[in-house]
């Protein structure tokens, strides 16, 4: 019998990694040290990815429970002194710099890694929607010599995406900051 008492449950059913990590990062920022969150997911890679991620943050991946159609993962927030600052992706382009670019220029591709509904509500003309949970599946299909600008709402999901690109051998990738939340250029 599970004696763990999570203070927050994250429903990530249907989402692929790294989206559960993004939601966990946000949730851990809202709870006290040593409190526990649970993440409910259907992604078969979740345990491996969450263990890797908590190893980088100093938080503790406690265990998981496998159910017939999902799994539940438990993460305990580290005490403040033991938490590690996540390494931000170093290459960035600011919103104002991106606005100066010709969006019809084929020398770069602008990927918007927000969910489809967010993209549908409003996006930069010429942007291609590639939800964060689908990035890994598409990396092998992309040209590693192409320049990519990656945007999301606030820069967190795009940061995760940029790290995924870099880990796969892409070098000309830039995180667009501060993201769509503060974008004041054209939107369609």
Briefly say what this structure is.
The protein is α/β, with parallel strands linked by helices and 188 residues long. It is 26% helix and 23% strand.
Give a verbal description of the structure.
It is built from six helices and nine strands. The mean pLDDT is 93. By secondary structure, it is an alpha/beta fold. It starts with 7 loop residues before the first strand and ends in an 11-residue tail after the last strand. Strands 5-9-8-6-7 form a five-stranded parallel sheet. The protein has a four-stranded mixed sheet with strand order 1-2-4-3, covered by helices on one side. The relative contact order is 0.15. The chain is elongated and about 55 Å long. A hairpin with a 4-residue loop joins strand 3 and strand 4. It has two domains: 8-81, Translation Initiation Factor IF3, CATH 3.30.110.40; 92-182, Rhodanese-like domain (Oxidized Rhodanese, domain 1, 3-Layer(aba) Sandwich).
């Amino acid at each position: 019998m599970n004696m763990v008492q999570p203070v927050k449950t994250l429903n990530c059913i249907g989402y692929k990694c790294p989206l559960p990590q993004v939601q966990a990062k946000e949730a851990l920022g809202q709870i006290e040290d040593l409190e526990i969150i649970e993440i409910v997911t259907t992604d078969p890679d979740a345990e491996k990815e969450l263990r890797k991620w908590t190893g980088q943050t100093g938080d503790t991946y406690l265990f998981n429970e496998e159910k017939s159609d999902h799994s539940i993962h438990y993460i305990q927030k580290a005490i403040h002194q033991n938490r590690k600052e996540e390494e931000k992706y170093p290459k960035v382009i600011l919103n104002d710099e991106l606005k100066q670019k010709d969006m019809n220029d084929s020398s770069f591709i602008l990927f918007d890694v927000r969910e489809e509904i967010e993209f549908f509500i409003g996006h930069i003309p010429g942007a291609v929607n590639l939800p964060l949970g689908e990035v890994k599946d598409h990396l092998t299909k992309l040209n590693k010599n192409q320049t990519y600008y990656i945007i999301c709402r606030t820069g967190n999901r795009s940061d995760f995406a940029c790290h995924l690109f870099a880990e796969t051998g892409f070098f000309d990738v830039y995180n667009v900051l501060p993201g769509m939340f503060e974008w004041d250029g054209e939107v369609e």
